[in-house]
Specification:
- The structure is a single chain.
- By secondary structure, the chain is mostly helical.
- It has one domain: Topoisomerase I, Chain A, domain 4.
- Helix content is 73%, strand content 0%.
- Helix 2 runs antiparallel to helix 3, helix 2 packs parallel to helix 4 and helix 3 runs antiparallel to helix 4.
- The longest helix has 38 residues.
- The radius of gyration is 24 Å and the shape is rod-shaped.
């Protein structure tokens, strides 16, 4: 075939990748995306541990009614602080992950899928908010 448009099977693969991008570059983009996913999942794991530990402290450790020194926190305050720190850390990690994915998607729009880790982080944050409210109500 001389001149004219390329066959349909060649057009579909040519449109899927940016011009002048090698296979090794696309693999590097994929490795970078997966590294960002792993990092967010590590933050999810850390936040889940802090949320569950804080909730467990609030529910299992009784508050002491004895007079306490001014620097000692009661168990519900300590649990609320732990859950709050976990939620803040998870929110910051999710925002950073979203920025990094947006940057990758801007350069390679057809090769960066949407993040499942961000969905999991949102679920954990929702459960963390429920735990936080549960600790505050349980006072």
């Amino acid at each position: 075939m001389t001149g004219g448009a390329p066959p349909a099977e060649l057009r579909s693969t040519a449109a899927a990748s940016p011009p002048n991008v090698s296979e090794s570059t696309l693999l590097a983009v994929d490795r970078t995306r997966l590294a960002h996913e792993r990092t967010l999942m590590a933050w999810v794991r850390t936040a889940t541990s802090m949320i569950s530990f804080g909730f467990t402290i609030a529910k299992l450790v009784p508050n002491r009614e004895s007079p306490r020194e001014s620097w000692v926190l009661d168990t519900h305050t300590f649990a609320s602080i732990m859950i709050g720190v976990a939620l803040v850390a998870l929110t910051i990690a999710a925002i950073q992950h979203r920025r990094e994915m947006r940057t990758l998607r801007a350069h390679y729009p057809d090769h960066v899928p949407y993040s499942n880790a961000l969905f999991v982080a949102s679920l954990v944050a929702g459960f963390g908010i429920l735990a936080f409210v549960g600790v505050l109500i349980g006072r």
